[in-house]
Amino acid sequence: MALTGKIAALGEVMQLAFVPQDFDAAVAHWTKTMGVGPFHLIEGIHLDGMKYKGEPTGAVFDLALAYWGDIQIELIRPRDDHPSIYRGEYGSTGNGLHHVCILVDDIAEARRVCEAEGAEVVIEGRFGTSEVIYVDPGTGPGTLVEILQQAKDGPDLFAIIKAACAAWDGSEPLRKLG
């Protein structure tokens, strides 16, 4: 039986994300022990119109992306103490899972479904013409859910990174983007 109208019905999980206490150690673990890489680093991100629990925030963070087959692995490094999901009650999970991500075509519909399920939007903003919300689905054993409506007007950054990971020879495990 399909669970239409539920958060899982919005799409499949395409990403596992972590906010490690030691970013460099996490990159080393994923690349050396797990064999996942190379990670592509984007530094100094601040989402346009970024809000934390409905209030504007100046939070800035770095992220590194790699692929393990079809699953994207994201490592996040907060750069400041502004309110965000990377500090405080939602902050570093040590080395545990911080959030999962699903891609959607209609962010407004995703918001409606999340609201109907009682999931609180804790972060929202835009990255270029992509729009993103992070929702807290409540006190169950789950985690935060990132919901991303990707831009359709530029290069497919995820596909570029996935191709680089598929052909990775183990060299240069952390590569800067932009």
TrEMBL record:
UniProt keyword list: Dioxygenase, Metal-binding, Oxidoreductase
Any single biological process term in GO: L-methylmalonyl-CoA metabolic process
InterPro entries associated with the record: Glyas_Bleomycin-R_OHBP_Dase, Glyoxalase_1_CS, MMCE/EMCE_epimerase, VOC_core
Gene3D superfamilies: 2,3-Dihydroxybiphenyl 1,2-Dioxygenase, domain 1 (3.10.180.10)
A Pfam family annotated for this UniProt entry: Glyoxalase_4
Domain VOC residue range list: 12-150
An annotated Gene Ontology molecular function: methylmalonyl-CoA epimerase activity
Signal peptide limits: none
Protein name, entry field: Glyoxalase/bleomycin resistance protein/dioxygenase
Organism in which the protein naturally occurs: Erythrobacter dokdonensis DSW-74
